[in-house]
Amino acid sequence: MEELITVGEEFSEYFLYIITCRFINICFMKIGKSKNLEDRIKNIQTGCPHKIEKVFTISSEFDEEINGVEHYIHYRFRQYNLNGEWYIASNDFLKLFVAEFKKINKGEFTWNEINSIVHEIHFDSLEILLHRHEYVFTEVKKEKGMYQKYESFGFNEFLDRIHN
């Protein structure tokens, strides 16, 4: 386990968050971005009729990176979108989600792929697809009344953690 760090103290980080909640046997997943993760989680919980179950993040010191990843992920999974930034976290969806992040990390996008979507997403956002990354997921948990980083792990482990 990493040393617990209050997410609000990380003034230089921008977050792509993945928040889950459940209703009966359906897992819902919200994908968004924030500079102030603590406040964002609280606001989402206020508007969500179900208790937030898990919170995961990918972080960067660069706002442009997180903006680009968020824009691309929302575009890539637009056909799975329920409403706003909410998706049903089915096993098939999650496998595609993880595969897409592996591709982003490896920088495996071709110019043809990028050019085919440049009319949908501004090129400044797509620039992140042109090079390799070392993104990992970090689980965030509420400890002592505050959301704190708990543990970081690779994409393969994400599939196990989101449902357990």
Roughly what is the average pLDDT, rounded to an integer?
Answer: 85
Q: Helicity, in percent?
A: 25-40%
Sequence of secondary-structure elements: EEEHEHEEHHHEEH
How is the biggest beta sheet arranged?
Answer: 8 strands, antiparallel
Structural class: alpha+beta
Count of DSSP strands: 8
Tally of individual helices: 6
Indicate how many domains the architecture comprises.
Answer: 1
How does the overall form come out from the CA principal axes? globular
Strand portion: 25-35%
The span between the termini is 17 Å
- Low-pLDDT stretches: 1-5
Concise structural overview:
This protein is α+β, with helices and mostly antiparallel strands. It contains six helices and eight strands, in the order βββαβαββαααββα.
Explain what the structure shows:
It contains 6 helices and 8 strands, in the order E-E-E-H-E-H-E-E-H-H-H-E-E-H. With 164 residues, the chain is of the alpha+beta class. It has one domain (5-163). The protein has an 8-stranded antiparallel β-sheet. Strand 2 and strand 3 form a beta hairpin. Helix 3 packs antiparallel against helix 6 (155-163).
